[in-house]
Amino acid sequence: MIAFVRGEVAAVTLSSAVLEVGGVGLELMCTPGTLSTLRTGQQATLPTSMVVREDSLTLFGFLDEDEKSVFELVQTASGVGPKLAQAMIAVLAPDDLRRAVSSDDVKTLTRVPGIGQKGAQRIILELKDRLGAPVGGRGATPAAAAPAAWRDQVHQGLVGLGWPARDAEKAVDAVAPEAGDLPDVGALLRAALRTLSKA
After folding, report:
1. Domain 149-198 has CATH 1.10.8.10
2. Residue 131 and residue 141: Cα distance in Å, rounded?
3. Is the dihedral of CA 110, 95, 36, 189 positive or negative?
4. What's the confidence (pLDDT) of residue 144?
5. Which of 16, 26, 87, 125 is the most exposed, fewest CB within 10 Å of its CB?
6. Burial class (CB in 10 A: 0-12, 13-18, 19+), 103
7. What CATH number does the domain located at 4-61 have?
8. Average pLDDT of the chain?
9. What distance in Å separates the CA atoms of residue 86 and residue 107, rounded to the nearest whole number?
10. Domain 65-131: CATH superfamily, name plus number
11. Rounded to 5, what percent of the chain is helix, strand, coil?
């Protein structure tokens, strides 16, 4: 298993980042919140989780170890694969996810694209004793993005999670007033997803 990757950021795409490690470019699938912290040409260290399938080897990259452990843990629930697990941590910070599961908050879980009422109830049932209580790790230091860049990142994140580009555009416009001087891409993405789930 590859526990983490450290190297120069060679490229950042809509849903992944390429880190150069010993002359090899490793592509890591990441959430928009993680991608917003990476800059091409800079060094980065990302905890990783490798998903092995018959036809593919996929590396997922994370902001921190907490995000990685939650990603791996939620996949132990039936019906939750890596794509859905990634969508869960894109929409909900690890502590928000723990809070939702521990308090039987079905509504919060259904904000994640791909999770319906029944799926949320099953996830709560299966993960309640495993996820644990909120640890209060993240949220105090939001990932800040350049004023114009956040719109692009949130839009790309929504499209990456399966929303049509036109709907994503409307959601970005809806949350624009919340951006302020130091936009928090993760929070804005979550707000945009809330807007879309109400529509």
Report:
1. yes
2. 22
3. positive
4. 43
5. 125
6. exposed
7. 2.40.50.140
8. 86
9. 18
10. 5' to 3' exonuclease, C-terminal subdomain (1.10.150.20)
11. 45, 20, 35
- Strand 56-61 relative to strand 24-29: parallel, antiparallel, unpaired? parallel
What does each C-alpha distance from 10 to 26, 143, 152, 160 come to in angstroms? Answer: 9, 20, 19, 20
pLDDT value at residue 139: 42
Find tokens 């860049």 and name the residue.
149
pLDDT of res. 80? 93
Query: 32: which 2 tokens?
Result: 């928009």
pLDDT of residue 148: 53
Q: CB within 8 A of 73, min separation 6: which ones?
A: 127, 130, 131
Q: What ranges do the domains of the chain cover? A: 4-61, 65-131, 149-198
Is the per-residue pLDDT at 163 higher than 90? no
8 Å CB contact between 144 and 27: no
Q: 176: which 2 tokens?
A: 């624009």
Is the per-residue pLDDT at 73 higher than 90?
yes
User: What would the 3-class secondary structure string for 136-190 be?
Assistant: CCCCCCCCECCCCHHHHHHHHHHHHCCCCHHHHHHHHHHHHHHCCCCCEHHHHHH
